[in-house]
Design a protein that fits this description.
The complex is a heterodimer of chains A (463) and B (61). Chain A has 463 residues and is of the alpha/beta class. Chain A has helices at 7-16, 21-39, 47-62, 105-112, 155-163, 179-185, 219-229, 264-270, 275-290, 303-329, 335-343, 349-370, 405-408, 438-451; strands at residues 42-45, 74-78, 116-121, 168-173, 188-191, 211-216, 259-262, 294-297, 375-379, 413-420, 426-433. Chain B is 61% helix and 0% strand. The radius of gyration of chain B is 17 Å and the shape is elongated. The chains are: A alpha/beta (463), B mainly alpha (61).
Chain lengths: 463, 61
């Protein structure tokens, strides 16, 4: 079996003829068959199609006609991304037999780039709140220790990438659903600027907070995937009509002179992170300084204000999105989703509008705080992943998360592994940039990953 | 200000949801978490303050 590779490494091996896409995808399925019984990251496999696609990619590489670095790369989609002719369930009983007629925009873009679809991935039901044990499929588990939670809602993507079943995948992020599971599973996940990636053909949760983005083992791989996912889409009213940015050319050029603002009060006062997470951040700051960055503290409004604003908007919008189905089929949803969605019914129009007005103020405060720096830094998750059976029902609503401020403001943010805690599970930090500055964010994350050993350790699953 | 029992019942009734007593009890309990979130947003705001719906349009330019 081939060693676990990043997208960039596999692509180089395709180019040199050392590895074939068919060989690589077969190894992915071998790993998956040997270990996904413990992890539950996949809801559906598309092996026949994957092998056909890998053979086609192999021919293109042999003829010198490869479509780019993603050609022949095995990936998978969170099961809220519509895939033509392939079941798309949102991990819900309500869509257990749903087969879309068309690919979502991102699915189509990644297929056009030559990626090989391994299957569809576990999520929290309709991308909100888990782990649930009352759905047609079990929740995904953390490959570093299957007794622990993956985070969510892009749970299957994070687990499958960490386990090496796929080299990258798609996620969605409404309050931290890309960055949270990336943090808990020790991978890299970026939530791009609101409007950068089309959401057409992705099942919605909260239209003004939902973002689509990539998850992979490294920042470099996220850059390759995100580059293929972006682009204006006239069919998505929130899509940003601006020229495509080059997200990959600057990777590897270092961060000398980068100005980093640490939102220390977020992780030390407003939502206190564990000692291991804090140590990871402190060590990261040393590394970043050694790489040439300048570092100072910045102050934003309190984490609790973003948390309150984001969750009032989220619950109201979730209820609006799901109202007719909740009325007709309430008890067909899992308990976690239905109870949380029903809370949205208690939010008045005045409260929702008030939250939107507060959102504008928070956006302005955030813009001011970041004006004199290039990148902000805070925790990704507060601690290592908890035991999967010990996640409180209302978690994420009671305690503020470090990720929500950047859904409220729409700023791009990336989760990066900063080491391991006492439980031998990953800890993380989050880097944030100004709108549409993903290239800078990915360059900074890549520089950090190259300077630290954390990308060299994979979960010890038995193949 | 905490939502009164009759306000809670009215909101559930208006929602159109058909809920069991068990779910109602659970939602009533969770409504206190929601109330604490709403309270955090309840500061005074000038009448002319606009919602953030335009933010994305500005951001896109």
């Amino acid at each position: 079996m081939t060693p676990q590779l990043t997208i960039a490494e596999a692509s180089r091996q395709f180019a040199s003829g050392k590895l074939s896409p068919v060989e690589l995808v077969k190894d992915c399925y071998r790993r998956l068959r040997a270990a996904d019984e413990q992890i539950n990251s996949f809801l559906l496999l598309t092996e026949e199609r994957a092998l056909d696609d890998a053979r086609a990619a192999e021919k293109r590489w042999c003829k010198g006609l490869a479509r780019g670095k993603l050609d022949g790369i095995p990936i998978a989609h969170k099961d809220i991304y519509n895939t033509a002719g392939i079941r798309t369930t949102a991990h819900s009983r309500l869509l257990e037999h749903n087969v879309p007629g068309e690919d979502g925009v991102v699915v189509r873009k990644l297929a056009d780039a030559g990626t090989v679809l391994v299957g569809k991935l576990a999520t929290h039901e309709f991308a909100m709140r888990g782990p649930s044990f009352d759905l047609p499929w079990p929740p995904a588990r953390n490959p570093w220790n299957p007794a622990h939670f993956t985070g969510g809602s892009s749970s299957g993507t994070a687990a499958a990438v960490a386990a090496g079943f796929i080299l990258g995948g798609t996620g969605s992020d409404t309050g931290g659903s890309i960055r949270g599971p990336s943090a808990f599973c020790g991978i890299t996940g970026i939530k791009p600027t609101y409007g950068l990636v089309s959401r057409r053909g992705i099942l919605p949760l909260s239209f003004s907070l939902d973002h689509a983005g990539p998850m992979a083992w490294t920042a470099e791989d996220c850059a390759l995937l995100l580059q293929a996912m972006t682009g204006y889409d006239a069919g998505d009213p929130t899509s940003a009509n601006r020229p495509a940015a080059d997200l990959t050319s600057d990777i590897g050029t270092g961060i000398k002179g980068l100005r980093i603002g640490v939102i220390r009060h977020f992780h030390e006062v407003d939502g206190v992170a564990s000692t291991d997470t804090l140590a990871g951040i402190d060590n990261a700051l040393v590394v970043l300084r050694e790489l040439g960055a300048t570092i100072r503290d910045v102050t934003l409004p309190s984490l609790g204000e973003y948390h309150a604003c984001g969750n009032v908007i989220l619950l109201a919008e979730v209820f609006a999105t799901h109202k007719s189905l909740l009325e007709a089929r309430f008890y067909e949803y899992g308990e976690l989703f239905r109870d949380r969605a029903a809370l949205g019914a208690l939010i008045s129009s005045e409260q929702y509008i008030h939250a939107l007005r507060r959102r504008r103020e928070l956006c302005l405060s955030t813009a001011t705080a970041i004006s004199d720096v290039d990148v902000l830094l805070t925790a990704g998750e507060a601690a290592e992943a908890p035991l999967i059976r010990e996640v409180p029902k209302w978690s994420g609503l009671e305690k503020p998360r470090f990720t929500m401020p950047f859904n409220v403001t729409g700023y791009p943010a990336i989760s990066v592994c900063t080491g391991f805690g006492k439980g031998n599970l990953p800890v993380s930090m989050q880097l944030i940039a100004k709108p549409f500055c993903e290239a800078l964010l990915l360059r900074a994350a890549h520089a950090f990953e190259e300077a630290t050993p954390w990308r060299k350790t994979r979960p010890a699953l038995a193949w | 200000m905490l939502m009164r029992e009759n306000e809670f019942a009215a909101a559930i009734c208006r929602s159109g949801l058909q809920l069991t007593q068990e779910t109602m009890t659970e939602l009533r309990r969770a409504s206190f978490i929601l109330e604490s979130l709403v309270e955090q947003l309840s500061g005074a705001m000038p009448m002319e303050a606009e919602p953030a719906t335009m933010f994305y349009a500005e951001q896109r330019q």
